[in-house]
Design a protein that fits this description.
The longest helix has 19 residues. It contains 5 helices and 9 strands, in the order H-E-E-H-E-E-E-E-H-E-H-E-E-H. With about 210 residues, the protein is α+β, with helices and mostly antiparallel strands.
């Protein structure tokens, strides 16, 4: 969730603040799942598969997991032609991850991975890969800037590691107008970013 805030949320906060000057925002960044019941939290952002709960989930956007490494790392190691080659290289695991599940059309393979470094934060893995310390399985939106700056390049582009679905969770369907406005704004911006379309927002005065 901290990575979500940096990549998806922060770039749009200035625009949101200008469009809706009467709405105040307070953010609590944590990778821990917060119980919305009994806590003064209007909404929570969850990434990945949702567990069964009584919360109301609103889909925001999605990203594709792909393999990335720095050009320097790729240059000093043997070429990667098939997923099985990954088992011979330094792979950057997320947490205690021991294998990657990759798909190509209808084909799926599970590749055992090992390496010197691991982290429970996607942003850290992206930095480790950019520094030439191994190969990482990252959401494409996380790796986008590093790819554009030449720090990362995609590995085995025909293979994918699944999708990251991103949701806004609320305790009930009935939510304050300010919360609905924030969700709608964020969803539209993320959708526009994916589709490379632009939309103009007008300043509105809403009850808090």
């Amino acid at each position: 969730t901290q990575d979500f805030a940096k990549i998806f949320l922060l770039p749009y906060l200035a625009e949101f603040a200008e469009c809706y000057p009467e709405i105040n925002c307070q953010f609590h960044l944590s990778d821990e799942k917060i119980n919305l019941v009994g806590n003064p939290v209007d909404l929570a952002i969850r990434i990945g598969r949702l567990e069964d709960s009584h919360y109301i989930a609103r889909f925001l956007t999605q990203s594709q997991l792909r393999l990335y490494a720095s050009p320097t790392y790729l240059a000093r190691n043997r070429p990667i032609h098939i997923p099985e080659n990954l088992a011979e290289l330094n792979c950057l695991a997320f947490g205690s991850q021991q294998k990657w599940q990759l798909t190509q059309n209808d084909r799926m393979v599970e590749i055992p991975i090992s390496g010197r470094f691991s982290a429970n934060n996607i942003g850290v893995l992206c930095q480790l890969a950019s520094d030439g310390l191994g190969i990482a399985l990252l959401p494409d939106v996380v790796a986008k800037n590093a790819v554009q700056n030449g720090l990362l390049t995609e590995v085995l582009p025909d293979w994918q590691g699944g999708e990251h679905l991103i949701y806004a969770l609320t305790e009930t369907k009935l939510i304050p107008a300010k919360t609905q406005v924030f969700i709608d704004f964020l969803k539209e911006k993320l959708h526009s970013n994916q589709e490379k379309k632009k939309k103009t927002y007008f300043i509105r005065h809403l009850p808090t």
